[in-house]
Structures are given as C-alpha cells and as structure tokens.
Amino acid sequence: MELALSPVILKLIAEAKRRGISVDDMKETPEQRAQREKEFEDKQRKAWRKGMKKKFWEEFSVWPDGKPEEFTFHDWRPNIQENVEATKYVARQTLNITKELVEQGKSYNVVFLGTPGVGKTSLALAMANEFRKVGKLVMFVSTTELKRMYDNMYDKGKEDLRPKVDNIVTWMKKAEVLILDDFGTEGIGRDNVRVDMQNSMYEVVNARKGKTTLITTNNRIEELQAMYDPKIISRLIPKNKDHQVVFKGMEDVREV
Predict the structure, then answer these.
(1) What is the mean pLDDT of residues 84-91?
(2) Contacts of 139 (CB under 8 A, 6+ apart)
C-alpha cells in the first residue's frame, strides 16, 4: 500500500522535478550533493574543452589552403635529407623541448630558423600534435594568409574580413599554444609590414606572456627586427639558444 502524500508535498516534488531534482537527490547529504555537483561541473568543463580544442584547431586557425594540416614525430623522415645527422639532430632537439613543455608544464616560446622547405612547419605541427593530445587549445596562423586578410579587408565587397580579423587576433591571444607559421614572409623590410598588423601583433605578444608560441621563419632574427618593431621581436623570439631550433646544412625537400 502506497503512502498518500499531501498536496503540499506533491507540489514540492513537482517543483523539484521541474528544476531537474529527483526525490533521490533530496535524500542526499550535503557532502554527496557537493560531490555530485563537482562531477557534473567537471564533465561540463571537459566537454567544453573538447569542443574548444576542435574549434581552435579547425575553425579559428588560419591555414594556407584553408584545411588543417597534420604531422607527427613518427612522420619525420631524416633520410630524405643528404645531411641525415643534422636532420636527426633538429628532430631530437624539438622532441626534447616538447617533452619539457608538455610533461613538465613549462611555458616558453620556440623559434624554428632555416631556409624554406627544410621541415620547420612539420616539426612545429608535430609539437602541436603532442599538445593537443593532452587537451591544450592549439591555434595555427599562417602570417602570409593573415597579411592577405589585412590587405583585403578594406576592399569593397570584403567588409566581412574586418570582424573576422578582429576575431582571429582575439583567439591568438587566448590560445594556450600558438603557431605563427612563415613569420616574416609578410614583409621584406620594416615599412612593408602594415602598421595595423604590427599593432595587432604587439597586442598578441603582450597578451601571451606565460604561454607558448611556436614561430617558424625563413628569416634571420636581424631581418625580423628590421621589418617589425624591435619590441615585438624582443617579446616574441626567445633569446635562449636552447629554444632556437636552427636548420643548418639542409635543403628544400618539399618536392621529394
């Protein structure tokens, strides 16, 4: 025989159900309720990060051909270079840096210096793959493509580019790991880098203190200082030689 409940109790139960609270929930101790709410929040947080991780990599990033690129350390093939030892060395150095950043939780910038086609972007992508495995919000930005947006955003019929660029800059500030690919191709001399792009980059590097930025460039550091405000380069390019991956004695193998 079921116990008859008063209208008041029935009303309270109905209200609780409307709020998503079951009768069993009402039997919980404060400690049990706190634990359940924590588990729910953790689940929601993990779901949010999973969604944002995908968005940073696939939607917020600026890819040369519009499609995300993938590369892992297992894909690195030193034998395609004549100087095999040099190729192995930059891979080992990059892997050691990655382990320090990912496993030890450190944050600092890394620059990949070398001529075109030697694998700078590939190793930066391999690092990104390891960061993404542990749930980091990683963003890739081709500075060549970003400059193209700056060049075109005031053209008639392309007014939608301006808010898009503003959003890109905002996400560049927020990304836990940012890749600036082909940095320096947007200008031969300082006057050739747009003032508005320099201003945005200055905002980005200042906002990224305590975060990790990976830079690939075909230029020497002195050339970057000539085309950008030196304050930007000083904040962006690491002075620690251990954080500079220099591709020496290697050739363009992109057609191999």
Answers:
(1) 94
(2) 56, 57, 60, 61, 171, 172, 175, 177, 178, 179
